[in-house]
Write a structure and sequence with these properties.
By secondary structure, this protein is of the alpha/beta class. It has one domain (about 5-230): TIM Barrel (Alpha-Beta Barrel), CATH 3.20.20. About 45% of the residues lie in helices and about 10% in strands. It has helices at about 25-35, 55-70, 85-100, 115-125, 140, 150-155, 170-180, 195-200, 215-225, 230-245, 250-260, 280-295, and strands at about 5-10, 40-45, 75-80, 100-105, 135, 160-165, 185-190, 205. The chain has an 8-stranded parallel beta sheet. Helix 3 (about 85-100) runs parallel beside helix 4 (about 115-125), helix 6 (about 150-155) packs parallel to helix 7 (about 170-180) and helix 9 packs antiparallel against helix 10.
Length: about 300
């Protein structure tokens, strides 16, 4: 299967109203801001999009609205993060009907599958729809590791076309390339390892902080692709304290608070996620406000 995914793909937030109902209009306004800033594609309903906090019906509504609004300007993918393979297949088919361009598939949530079960899960979802799939590997968050030999074994499934590598181990990029050649499109999925990932061969970046700093995010990406490493390192060093927010358990709250501070969205999340308070809130705000005050020239 031939797809041409590359560049910055935000794991986009889902915006909520004060009563925790989905604010479709605000979600689409924010999507427009990121498109105007130069993102190359978007992933709706990933972890940052609070996938697991929404029903299939709500998620389908979000996808239908996003696809209709984007009108083919960029690829629209959706996260698939269900607790069973059956439900993952069901939502994949609903997403296909909604018109998305591809899927980002996670291991089945809650149960910690072994390698055989993990590969069967991805094969089953792939066989349920003709859509191209990005496999999301994030063992620190989900306790299921898809190793380079497993990716080599999965290479016979043609619709598994890309990998979002979030193991927090930069060696994995090289190990995947050594095991699989150019079989997969490689995306870095850890914000504060993106430069390392690009140097080692990643051609895409699934980013969280781009939601709050889309123009600076694109600046860093363009500098890296141009090989302007001196300037890229300067921007990366400015950006890294913010990017560290993406690898915390409360990354959704942190990113949405950054969006609120930059005027790009609301910090409202669905419970059990609650607004940040006390010393934790002060510490995160300090990082965000320092970054705003010292933004690099574009």
């Amino acid at each position: 299967m031939s797809v041409h995914w590359h560049g910055v793909y935000p794991a986009a937030t889902t915006q909520f109203r004060a009563d925790e109902s989905i604010d479709i209009e605000a979600t689409l306004r924010h999507l427009d801001i990121m498109i105007e800033s130069g993102i190359h594609g978007v992933i709706m309903l990933g972890t940052v999009g609070e996938n697991m906090s929404q029903s299939i019906e709500e998620k389908t509504q979000v996808l239908e609205a996003a696809v209709q609004h984007v009108r083919g300007r960029i690829p629209v993918l959706t996260g698939i993060a269900e607790t069973t393979t059956r439900e993952a297949c069901r939502f994949a088919q609903a997403a296909e009907r909604a018109g998305v361009d591809g899927l980002m598939v996670l291991p089945a949530m809650v149960y910690k599958a072994d390698p055989r079960e993990t590969m069967e899960h991805f094969r089953a979802v792939a066989k349920s729809t003709p859509l191209p799939i990005m496999v999301y590997n994030n063992p620190p968050a989900y306790s299921v590791d898809i190793t380079p030999p497993m990716f080599a074994e999965l290479a016979d499934q043609p619709t598994l076309v890309a990998i979002k590598e979030s193991s927090e181990n930069p060696r994995r990029i090289t190990d995947i390339i050594n095991a699989c050649g150019d079989r997969y499109i490689l995306f870095c999925g850890v914000d504060d390892l993106v430069m390392e990932g690009v140097i080692l061969g990643a051609v895409g970046w699934v980013s969280g902080l781009v939601n709050a700093f889309p123009r600076e995010n694109r600046l860093l990406w363009d500098l890296m692709l141009a090989g302007n490493w001196d300037r890229a390192r300067e921007v990366y060093r400015w950006y890294t304290p913010l990017l560290h927010l993406d690898v915390h358990t409360k990354l959704v709250q942190y990113i949405k608070l950054a969006m609120a501070e930059t005027g790009l969205g609301s910090e409202i999340t669905r419970s059990p996620r609650l607004p940040l308070v006390g010393a934790e809130r002060d510490a995160v705000l300090s990082v965000i406000r320092k970054a705003i005050a010292t933004r690099p020239a574009l």
